[in-house]
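for the writeup, i need someone to sanity check this before i put it in the appendix. the sequnce is what the collaborator sent (i think, or maybe the updated version? ugh). structure was predicted straight from it, no edits. if anything looks off just tell me and ill rerun, i have time this weekend
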Amino acid sequence: MLEKIAYSPEENPIVEQSKFDSKTEKIVRESINSQLDTETEGRELADSWDRLLSLFGTEKARGRFIKLCQDYRDETYAYQQRQVAETHSRQTSSSPDSKKSAIHNEIMQILRNLITAKNWPEDDYRLLDKLQDRKAVEKMLNNLSI
């Protein structure tokens, strides 16, 4: 019995396989690009964090700022745990997370004081200016391991 050696493009298993591979390759490429974007963003955040810490005049001021940021992260975690517990117990409290907000306000005040403390080089000023946005600060704090 002779095996069919000529296929129409629609029947060709090699063409079908390459179509599958093309779709799979696209999915894999998108996944890898997404991971690279996340890694790049993580490195940029870490670099920004390091640059920010280098702007503090003394080790004591830097240490105090780091402690505040750690407290903020701890409060964020505690708040999330309370939210989970309230969800499971079907109780909700409408009280705002005032301790977390107070810490965030203190961090923002330090950043406002820092930007006005002296005439910063352009790159440092841009970083400090970017960190005048509460959401940018929150993103940095939540995405770094401090």
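The CA atoms of residues 32 and 131 lie 29 Å apart. The mean pLDDT is 80.
thx in advance!!
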